[in-house]
Amino acid sequence: MKITSDFDGGNIHVIDSKTPDKIRLNIEKDNASDFFQWFYYRVDGVQGRTLNMGLENAGEAAFKSGWENYSACASYDDETWFRVPTSYENGVLTILHTPSHDTVWYAYFAPYPMARHHALIKEHAAKEGVTHSVLGQSLDGQNIDLLHVAGGSKTIWVDARQHPGETMAEWWMEGFLGRLTDGNDKVAQALLAKASFYVVPNMNPDGGVRGNLRTNAAGANLNREWGVATMERSPEVKLVMDKMDETGVNLALDVHGDEALPYNFIAGAEGVEGWTLKDQALLDKFQSEYEKSTPAFQRKFGYGTASPGTANLTMATNWTAHRFRCLSATLEMPFKDDANHPDADFGWSAERSAGLGHDVLPAMLAVIDDI
Q: Can you list the domains of the chain with their CATH numbers?
């Protein structure tokens, strides 16, 4: 038996793997940071052997409530991911599984490797009406890719994976971009008649490759860098901010994953100074229409709302709403299952994330005349 994580997005530290029934592991911290929760590793030579894997530092992870009612993801081909029995007790996350194949991968959520990101960019850059550009480079020298989908005069920005371990956000992008660039989709065409899109599918490629949960190569949490970003610490955010100033913003959607809550929901910018009843009505309309377009989205559970004037303006949604006086929101998806529509085998998944991305277009179309 061999356990490895020396690959794109990999993260695990092996304490002891002498016997399969008592494997002792730790999750590695994000570089230059105390954040950790993302894990992703491969086990070889284990067909038919019952694996009892204890992630012993889980109780010290960034979001301990994320382990409650959570099931780890597993795959025999590093592509199709299913859930396996998992428990959390006394600070240890235990994964219990008997693989039917010799090689198996385990992860916090279905990974989204850079090879797939590059394929996503290549696929859509080749489509009519879509232009690919590189805003600049990350600290590790990776491209910050931007897709511009030409359309009407209003401007919509959509970004994902500020937090690299929230891989469901880029899976969401597959469904979103697939529908937006479908020339036969009537909703997409109606939307593009009125708006142009600027899309950053992966804001934090360095963190993704390094196997980080939340930070970039400098240890910066990108969603606390808005308005204060520098090229030395968080070029990913600085480059996007500068481009937003060039294009303007009428609607912005920042796509994330939430470790603790087993629901899909929106967090708005209610806490920005000068929040009005009109702003609230527009946010409510967007959410209501999203809820109509898919049963996966709901409005009952979420973060609650901040009082006007108390917003943290270093967060993307708040900074964008404040700077451009636009409709700006954060979409959150679960690492766990969707409690309203559970799936015992797959939980909330890559495919369901993509479906949620596909289904956002009607909500955008519903508010396009009001933004």
A: 2-107 (2.60.40.3120), 114-367 (3.40.630.10)
